Amino acid sequence: MRKLIVFDIDGTLRDEVLGIPESIPFVLRQLKRKGHEAAICTGRSLGTVQDDVLELGIENLITGGGSYISHKDVSVFETALDADAAAGVFHYLTDPCTDGVGGVLEGRDEIFMNQAAADILNQMNLEKSKKLTSRQREKFFKNEKIMYQDNIEEFHPGQVDIHKICLWCSPPVYRRIGEMFGAGRTELAQQGSWNEYGYYEIIPHGAGKGAAVVRLCEYLGIGIQDTLAFGDGRNDIEMLKICGTGIAMANGADELLASADSICGKPMEDGIYVELVKRGLIPRSSLRGI
């Protein structure tokens, strides 16, 4: 039976610091050899997917938290936030009176952030990298395609479709921005907190990771019951619940672990490889270290 195997990127298909496990190319070759389909399903925009991931040659890409789907570089589905409302968010984020609200506007290929967002994201990366060796730290920042700097003035309303908006702000500010789009026009891919800020990922209504996997299944002619999904973050919960089998990485968020059908090892423990061998979807490798 032909299956679709879906992978989140950060913390799942690749370790954010150490990169892609040596077992992953073998996994992908064997899935293809067995006639299965592999897909990436990430919150990242297409333009920020790391080069080492793109070099794996996975033909099915779901990016922008489900806002964009492609198969063999051909667009299958694309949706965007309302252009007028996105322009309103842009003007709000660039207003000196709203200093301190962090915001990122993400298109398919480009992202635009203000200084507050750049400061927060740079601080996050420093936290992630502070226990690394100098060599690991160099690799970590080299592999990251996103430039964490204030470039929001490069956004020109109406010229770039916005797939996702990330906000670091108070609940009242989030509600005010939500009102710009109107009821039922958006949904949260995930939310959380960072220090004193609330964190909100806004995507078009109906464009979540789970819905995107359903759309890709319909395009490929594969039943949703014949899907396996691997993820580690809160924004993967819907995807794991809707797929035939949802597998959480051991490093995953507590909420995700609670909703998964199975838990596999961390990326650098070859968790994906071990899980797929256990399920009989790929053979055991004779390669040293795998």
Write the layout of secondary structure elements.
Blueprint: E1 4-7, H1 23-33, E2 37-41, H2 51-54, E3 60-63, E4 68-71, E5 74-78, H3 83-93, E6 102-106, E7 111-113, H4 115-129, H5 134-143, E8 164-169, H6 171-181, E9 186-194, E10 197-204, H7 209-220, E11 227-231, H8 237-242, E12 245-249, H9 254-259, E13 262-264, H10 271-278
Parallel strand pairs: 1-2, 1-11, 2-3, 11-12, 12-13
Antiparallel strand pairs: 3-4, 4-5, 6-7, 6-8, 8-10, 9-10
In short:
The protein has 290 residues and is of the alpha/beta class. The chain has helices at residues 23-33, 51-54, 83-93, 115-129, 134-143, 171-181, 209-220, 237-242, 254-259, 271-278; strands spanning 4-7, 37-41, 60-63, 68-71, 74-78, 102-106, 111-113, 164-169, 186-194, 197-204, 227-231, 245-249, 262-264.
Q: How would you describe this protein?
A:
The chain has 290 residues and is of the alpha/beta class. The chain has two domains: 4-79 and 207-278, Rossmann fold (3-Layer(aba) Sandwich); 83-204, Hypothetical Protein, Haloacid Dehalogenase-like Hydrolase, Chain: A, domain 2 (2-Layer Sandwich). The chain is built from ten helices and 13 strands. The strands form two sheets. Strands 5-4-3-2-1-11-12-13 form an eight-stranded mixed β-sheet. The protein is globular.
Oligomeric state of this protein: single chain
Secondary-structure arrangement, i.e. CATH architecture of the largest domain: 3-Layer(aba) Sandwich
Strand order of the largest sheet: 5-4-3-2-1-11-12-13
Low-confidence stretches: none
What Rg is obtained from the alpha carbons, in whole angstroms?
19 Å
CATH superfamily of the largest domain: HAD superfamily/HAD-like
Shape: globular
How many discrete structural domains? 2
**CATH level 1 name of the largest domain:** Alpha Beta
Q: Between the first and last Cα atoms, what is the distance in angstroms?
A: 26 Å
Largest sheet: 8 strands, mixed
Mean pLDDT figure: 93
How many β-strand stretches? 13
Instruction: Classify the secondary structure makeup into a structural class.
Output: alpha/beta
GO cellular component, one term: cytosol
Organism: Faecalicatena orotica
GO molecular function: magnesium ion binding; phosphatase activity
Protein name: Cof subfamily of IIB subfamily of haloacid dehalogenase superfamily/HAD-superfamily hydrolase, subfamily IIB
